[in-house]
Amino acid sequence: ALGNLAAIGSGILDASKPHFQQLQEQLIGHGLNALGSLSESINNLHGSITGGR
Q1: What is the pLDDT of residues 4-32, one digit of tens each?
Q2: pLDDT of the residue at 49
Q3: What's the domain of life for this entry (predicted)?
Q4: Cβ(24)–Cβ(34) under 8 Å?
Q5: pLDDT at 35 over 80
Q6: How far apart are alpha carbons 7 and 9 in whole angstroms?
Q7: What angle do CA 12, 18, 24 make, to 5 degrees?
Q8: Of residues 46, 53, 8, 41, the one with CA closest to residue 27
Q9: pTM for this structure?
Q10: Mean pLDDT for the stretch of residues 33-53
Q11: Dihedral sign, CA of 38, 44, 48, 49?
Q12: Is residue 24 within 8 Å of 6, Cβ to Cβ?
């Protein structure tokens, strides 16, 4: 999924070089949001696993 996201990002960047900086910031922002959600999900899962013992 991350590879697809990177490929899409590259295509967008190639199509609009003048907006490179803005798009780069947006992609990084989306990436950080995704990582935050993922780590939160892992923490919740880990909590329910360890809490069940």
Answers
A1: 888 877 776 676 676 778 888 998 998 89
A2: 86
A3: Eukaryota
A4: no
A5: yes
A6: 5
A7: 50
A8: 8
A9: 0.46
A10: 88
A11: positive
A12: no
